[in-house]
Amino acid sequence: MHVKLSYMTSVRNLFFIFPLVAMALTSLAQSADLAGAQLSEFDKALSFEVDKAGSAPTGWTTKPAGAVLVDDKLFHSGQHSVRIELKAGTADGFGVITKSLPLEFSGKVIELHGFLRTENVTGFAGLWMREDMDGNRVEYDNMQSRQLKGTTDWTEYIITLPVHPGAQKLLFGAIAIGSGKVWVDDLQLLVDGKPPSQAPKEDNSSVIEKDHQFDGGSGIALPSLTQIQIDNLAMLGKVWGFLKYEHPLVTSGKFHWDYELFRILPAILAAPDRTSAQLALVHWINGLGTIQPCNPCAVLDEKEVQLRPDVGWIADETLLGKDLVKILQFVHQNRLPEKQFYVSLAPGVKNPLFEHEQKYEGIKFPDAGFQILALYRFWNIIEYWSPNRNIVGEDWNGMLREFLPRIALAKTSDDYQLQMMAMIALDHDTHANLWSSLKVRPPVGECMLPLNLRFIGHSAVIYSFASVDTTATDGFKVGDVITDLDGHSVEDLVRAWTPFYADSNQAARLRDIAQAMTNGSCGSASIGLRRGTESLTVKATRIPVAGMTAISSTHDLPGETFRLLTDQVAYLKLSSAKIADVDHYFQLAEKTKGLIVDIRNYPSEFVAYALGSHLVVQPTLFARITTSNLSSPGEFHWDHSASLQPSQPHYAGKVILLIDEISQSQAEFTAMALRSSPNAVVIGSTTSGADGNMSQIPLPGGLSSAISGTGVFYPDGKPTQQIGIVPDKTFTPTIEGISAGRDEVLEEAVRQILGAEMPPEAIDHISKP
User: Fold this and answer.
1) Is 15 found in the same domain as 135?
2) Which of 388, 431, 428, 379 is nearest to 406 (CA)?
3) Looking at the structure, do residues 177 and 270 belong to the same domain, yes or no?
């Protein structure tokens, strides 16, 4: 969700024009495999002659929902085509259809033929095709260089890729970027001029596709754990993760490393002492095969190092014993450069991608082996691939030991998810939630009160109503402070729920708790309120979340994207701002004294560069990015810088940026860019403190987590993670102002431009309806 390159730079780098295109395509491909598809069915799918109009095309994975439909009105041949229709505000700003094939054939050239028709496309449209090997892209084309945009009639296009030796997967389809409509029809895939089914067969499947021993379960059952077992399991978790990312045979994809864990676990659990566990590990590692001396060897890149690997523990003979120390040090010295099987780096952006990590959705819980695997996987991803591991704020080694019994001994699926959620929360990264499992995060329930809440200081305040049905909100007033829910004080509830909220800082944590606070069972609830100096109790009804019609996730002004608050003050909110309209915004704002950019939201498009370029008169550095090194897991170095290049028309007026706890990730990066203007002032309160491109992490049980995958810093090296964007002038709403329907932060912004005297029409424009 958080692209950190300039718009044009990111266009050149695969799909990273918008936040999660590459990760989205990866997940789409995983769910669209065609292994064993019959040729006739395959051809039908490519011609789209298998669907009724209006539905998504059968046999394809599509994104976003609702933007890809079968069209029976416009087609090249037959009776159907597929239409990708992107409107202003379409999620992520791209649409894609994806099909994936195992590369079980050999040949020289793969061709994808297809007919495309476009209408008012603002970005570009094209066929796309990609080959992957060991989770890494090895060949790719998406027609971006051909700049197919605007309006065109049906035309046949062909893209080709050489068949890459060892590639295991072919992904292909059509893509549209920006806005507009693209029709796709009559696709044809050929290998050396023939259908894939007629090409010579070749087995390039990975070890994960061949090793099925534990598909039905790990076979590990644990009624309890002794302290010796916990100590030995903690040692195993560190050794297993180290070998996963450094042992040459593992990084070359020779082992199903999850299943290797299940093969060694019984011996570790049975070990009566540390020495026995060490010997079991030595025997296990030696059984993997002989490590050949490397040539060339991977080395730590000392140039521009920002964070060094923490591998000093592999020399700790007290922890590991002499024999194991010797083996691990030999592994470290003979790791292969740029060779990883379980992780790759996204092209251009370089956040880690964990494409070979399996979700094991069919596993039945409890399963202690898979639960331990989940803990080891996440713990080691933080240890080796998190750019922010040095500011976790917790004893990360201690967390491994603490959560081993809590996660391994969880007796239900819900308890397993809750314990994983609590462990992930200690990474203190708002991106690193257990996103698949929010239904088990307290407070639980399918219903909620129709209230939008916000913490003002320590008070949970009704900010607005989440339903337009006024009868559902009887008894409540905007500005009321909730003091207790069903007899429990808000302070006690926040204290009890906090361990399960994965947030970078307290501002983000209270934001998320406020959004979920009234969740519960459907039906009646008793709410304690403070209204001014009065205390009262309201009987209310929790209603299904699906029935909410006005849930708020922003603090900006309702209505138009751009407006003049007075003839001297322009206002722009990023929740609906469009790249294509940026020049027009500045033309309208040209004669004003000041421009207010409201980032109390999440930007609808990645406008940081497009907006920022109009606010500077010379190239201006505003951020530095750190990325990881595949050759030295755990090392992060200064990779590239983010700069603005001046554009016309230049806006010379004052620039006021509004931020608060809603501002997160792309919003924070945008604030950094716009703040680099010499005329900029940031007003509001601290942001959520989660910047950098998200890297998704699959976990056993069909669960999904993530981390901030790149480090984002100011040009002087000061971090933004956890800290957030700190305003130049801290200004927060008051309970009295919320009660009166005023936007006090916006009022202050206008004062910064016009001075103490604000004309009445300005107040009229910025008061809440």
Assistant:
1) yes
2) 379
3) no
Residue range 471-524, pLDDT digits in tens:
878 999 999 999 999 999 999 999 999 999 999 999 999 999 999 999 999 999
**Interaxial angle between packed helices 413-425 and 368-385, expressed in degrees from 0 to 180 and rounded to the nearest 10:** 20
Mean pLDDT estimate for the chain: 89
CATH number at residue 461: 2.30.42.10
- pLDDT of amino acid 763: 63
d(CA 469, CA 479): 18
Please return the burial class of 55, using the count of CB atoms within 10 Å of its CB with bins 0-12, 13-18 and 19+. Answer: exposed
Q: Domain range holding 465?
A: 447-547
What is the rounded CA–CA span in Å between residue 146 and residue 446? 49
Q: Are residues 641 and 719 in the same domain?
A: yes
Predicted confidence (pLDDT) per residue in 349-388, tens digit: 899 999 899 999 999 999 999 999 999 999 999 999 999 9
Instruction: Give residue 168's pLDDT.
Output: 82
Task: Provide the token pair at 645.
Answer: 């290049």
Neighbouring-strand partners of residue 460: 455, 482
Q: Are residues 261 and 152 in the same domain?
A: no
Question: Tell me, what CATH number does 112's domain have?
Answer: 2.60.120.260
In a domain, 104, yes or no: yes
| Number of domains forming the structure of the chain | 4
Q: How far apart (Å, rounded) are the C-alpha atoms in residues 180 and 263?
A: 53
* Region 260-282 average pLDDT: 98
DSSP code, position 663: -
Q: Do residue 540 and residue 568 come from a single domain?
A: no
Does residue 435 sit within a domain?
A: no
- The reply to whether 491 and 399 lie within a common domain is no
Q: Is the pTM for the entire model greater than 0.90? A: no
Residue 611, number of CB atoms within 10 A of its CB? 26
- Do 119 and 218 touch, CB atoms closer than 8 A? no
**By percentage, how much of the chain surpasses pLDDT 90?**
76
- Element at 275 (helix H, strand E): helix 274-286
CATH number of 678's domain: 3.90.226.10
In the 8-state DSSP scheme, what is residue 266? H
Which of these, 705, 675, 685, lies nearest to 748 by C-alpha position?
685
Model confidence band, residue 45 (pLDDT cutoffs 50, 70, 90): low
Q: How many CA atoms lie within 13 A of 434 on its CB side?
A: 29
- Choice among 25-29, 69-73, 472-476 with the minimum mean pLDDT: 25-29
Domain-located, residue 1: no
